[in-house]
């Protein structure tokens, strides 16, 4: 689903807001989520999922084309864990 499709679906369910207002709200939600995760905090949306930042350690990897070993620096990645309710809805 694209962001534009999300806006379209929400606008069909909410008659009192314009598409522009809905887009602004969705952008604000995403901005809040990005800000929270960038601080290393966890996001818990009950009935949907948990998002948390994990630190990936530095490692040595291999370039598959040349076979050369390269050093991959420490990175932060998002861990997504779906809720039990979401898992059950997907597996009906």
UniProtKB/TrEMBL annotation:
GO terms for cellular component: cytosol. Keywords: DNA condensation, DNA-binding. It holds the Pfam family Bac_DNA_binding. InterPro entries: Hist_DNA-bd, Histone-like_DNA-bd_CS, IHF-like_DNA-bd_dom_sf. GO terms for molecular function: DNA binding; structural constituent of chromatin. GO terms for biological process: chromosome condensation. This is Integration host factor subunit beta. The keyword DNA-binding applies. Belongs to the bacterial histone-like protein family.
């Amino acid at each position: 689903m694209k962001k534009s499709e999300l806006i379209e679906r929400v606008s069909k369910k909410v008659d009192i807001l314009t598409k522009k207002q809905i887009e602004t709200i969705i952008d604000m939600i995403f901005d809040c989520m990005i800000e929270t995760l960038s601080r290393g905090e966890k996001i818990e949306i009950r009935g949907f999922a948990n998002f948390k930042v994990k630190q990936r350690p530095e490692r040595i990897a291999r370039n598959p084309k040349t076979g050369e070993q390269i050093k991959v620096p420490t990175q932060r990645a998002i861990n997504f864990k779906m809720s039990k309710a979401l898992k059950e809805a997907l597996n009906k």
